[in-house]
Amino acid sequence: MVTKSLQSIFKVFLTFILLIPLWTFSQDAPITAIGNVAACQGTTTPLPVTVTGFANVSAITLRMDYNPQLLDFISYANTNPAFTGMMINDVAVSASLRKVIIVWSDITPVTLTDGSKLIDLNFSLLTSASGTISFNNVSNGGQDCEYADVNADPMNDNPTAIFYINGIFSGLSVGTAGVINGLTNTCKGATGVQYSINPVLNATGYTWTVPSGCIITSGQNTTEITVNFPTYELSGDIEVYASNTCENSNTITLPITVNPLPVPSISGDQVICVNDARVVYTTELGMTSYNWSIVGGTITSGGTSTSNTATVTWNTTDAGTISVNYTNGNGCTAIAPTAYNVTIDPLPVPSISGDQVVCVNDAGVVYTTEPGMTSYNWSIAGGSITSGGTSTSNTATVTWNTTGAGTISVNYVNTNGCTAITPTAYNVTVNPLPVPSISGDQAVCVNDAGVVYTTEPGMTSYNWSIAGGTITSGGTSTSNTATVTWN
């Protein structure tokens, strides 16, 4: 055995070594390291044994201990071709200890570049716990781990921790997945909702599932995903498990309730009159973030983010709209506000027809406004309403009894329920009655003929009459003269 040969060589030189003066130092041994690896349980994985400072080495003895309850030595491979005749043995020491022995020697020393590999030791991890492959530089007086130089002298390899670096075979068992962080209540149509878990030990990927119809927009195979929920109501579970090439973790679940979106309602007058004020519109009570808007009018009170009512003045005729949205108790908001259409009717302008020029004390003068309305309101100045003129009448019969300017006014409520801002006033001129004059002879003789009497010219409907004589010419309805014979 190479080991016994090396022991004999070491004994021969032991006395010589003891006689070397204290100021003489032997060559340092190479730094020998076993690589650290991580792999799946039960998978055969090479642990490389590498060296640094490997110069003029003529013999190698290495012992590496491991626990066979954690690790199983399978084989070795990729022996460095510089070491012809290298021997490798796996030997049982106890139920919890085995050793791998590497032995080599040659009369021709070997030098390697730093980082060169001596050999690959193939191990399999038996449990989820890590296993250590450690150099033993204590047993057998330290001779189980030793290098010899070109003169076959043992090289300096103390302290052990510097020259022999142990290796660790770590398992890749996936840790336990924790809880899913994120909303348990959301709204249909919600977008950009994030869910996450804390990183899981040894995990290289994360597999998420979401309720049918939901869409993972980003983050699949990571610890955080972004989800869009469908526009139809659908609840279910969000699930995730961590994994690597070895195994999957436990699956964790977060139940999700997908709430329907609210549909705000609005109640209030839908047919109104322009300039109507204090018209109140109401939506559901107890919500948050109310958002009112209006077209064709002005919100004069309410209509704030905390108010479920809005008081409006409509100031544009034709069509108006008031809209509202809010966030309900589930934190959901309608996709679009509810729009409430309003018809804004113009105010009426009552008309009046009838004589505008009359004589004082004229009676039976009729004035008329639009029929079919309600709440007629007649008023007069300079005359008296003798019939009609009630709240249900579209006519008023008047006697004008004051000369000068007179006025008759009317207002009403039309079929849309609108009333003019002010009544319509109809101005009337009330003329005084005439006092005709007559000129002509006042003293005549009986049977005098051709006596002419004259009144104001330019009038109409002259009406002459006589007593004690005869009108012989004129005296007609169109004549302002009458010729008389007093008989």
Summarize it.
By secondary structure, this protein is mainly beta. The protein has helices at residues 2-19, 160-163, and strands spanning 31-34, 37-39, 44-52, 57-66, 71-77, 87-94, 97-110, 116-125, 131-135, 146-148, 164-165, 167-171, 185-187, 193-196, 205-209, 215-218, 224-228, 236-243, 252-259, 271-273, 279-282, 288-295, 297-302, 309-314, 318-327, 338-345, 357-359, 365-368, 374-381, 383-388, 395-400, 404-413, 424-431, 451-454, 469-474, 481-486.
Describe this structure as you would to a colleague.
Strands 2, 4, 6, 7, 9, 10 and 12 form a seven-stranded mixed sheet that branches. This protein has a five-stranded mixed sheet with strand order 5-8-3-1-11. It has a four-stranded mixed sheet with strand order 13-19-18-15, with no helix packed on it. The protein has two helices and 36 strands. A hairpin with a 5-residue loop joins strand 16 and strand 17. The longest helix is centred in the first third of the chain and has 18 residues, at 2-19. It has 487 residues and is mainly beta.
List the helices and strands and how they pair.
Layout: H1 2-19, E1 31-34, E2 37-39, E3 44-52, E4 57-66, E5 71-77, E6 87-94, E7 97-110, E8 116-125, E9 131-135, E10 146-148, H2 160-163, E11 164-165, E12 167-171, E13 185-187, E14 193-196, E15 205-209, E16 215-218, E17 224-228, E18 236-243, E19 252-259, E20 271-273, E21 279-282, E22 288-295, E23 297-302, E24 309-314, E25 318-327, E26 338-345, E27 357-359, E28 365-368, E29 374-381, E30 383-388, E31 395-400, E32 404-413, E33 424-431, E34 451-454, E35 469-474, E36 481-486
Parallel strand pairs: 1-11, 2-12, 13-19, 20-26, 27-33
Antiparallel strand pairs: 1-3, 3-8, 4-7, 4-9, 4-10, 5-8, 6-7, 9-12, 14-17, 15-18, 16-17, 18-19, 21-24, 22-25, 23-24, 25-26, 28-31, 29-32, 30-31, 32-33, 34-36, 35-36
